[in-house]
Amino acid sequence: MGSYIFRLELDPLNSELIEKAKNELNETVDTVNKGLADLRELLQGEPELNVPDDDYFFAKFLRPVKWHANPAFQVMKHLYHYNMTHPVYSDNLTPMDDRDVLSSGVVVPLPVRNRDGCRLFLIQCGSRWNPNEISLDQMLRGIRLVTESALFEPETQVCGVHLLFDLSGFTLSQALCFTPRFAKAELDWVQNCYSGRIKGLHMVHNPFLFNMVFALFKPLLTEKLRKRIYFHGTNKESLLKVVDRKAVPKYMGGDLDVPIQPVGKPLWEYYCNFQQEFEESVKLGYLKKN
After folding, report:
1. Is the dihedral of CA 46, 49, 50, 56 positive or negative?
2. Which pTM does this prediction carry?
3. Per-residue pLDDT averaged across 164-175, rounded?
């Protein structure tokens, strides 16, 4: 990405992040061990749910909820029920199957983290999005793929994520792509199935027309998520109060010198390095009845 390198950061927590996890997530040896033991006990009562018996896997559900097993278990169940009931957004969710959206640059993980350690994602919903080439369903699959893979990063588990939605050039034809069905499916995933700490959803360059789209989502929002949605419009300083300047692309008012044109093939090729892991992931979940 220009002079920057994006990679999934799978390294263990450093001393600073260990302290942050202790202060914000009550992460101690005792709470971790109790959370893991309690989650394993809950899973014994759900034999039809196929997940690996693995501390590293469990951490992406437990750490964001302060190692409390029950809410982690509920999110896990919601996620795998969602995958069964929403196959259009879930089946074969791998880089090879989602080459078009990853190559388009519509969904991009940014290479620099926010000042608080959050992973940032850029979603191009305006002039750089052609619905005839990349459908909304494909866009949600792309968002799921990059944000869910980031949950294997210990730092992202601790710090959370921000999503920046660039709506410059948003048109009526794009607005008409949004339906109540899509709004419900997207928010069901965001609010009930995504185990990460969502710190902010930022609408940037959002025109008045976008209000029509947001009206589909507004009645379905929980109070918690509603408080984390920001409408910045063209006020770049408003965005920079929440997201670090060094992590925001230049054309949005920051200092991050990344290509405006789609990142394209290199991003897709990078995720293809983890194709086998994605293929194993899609096998998880509730056993299908014959």
Report:
1. negative
2. 0.95
3. 96
* Rounded percentage of the chain residues whose pLDDT exceeds 70: 97
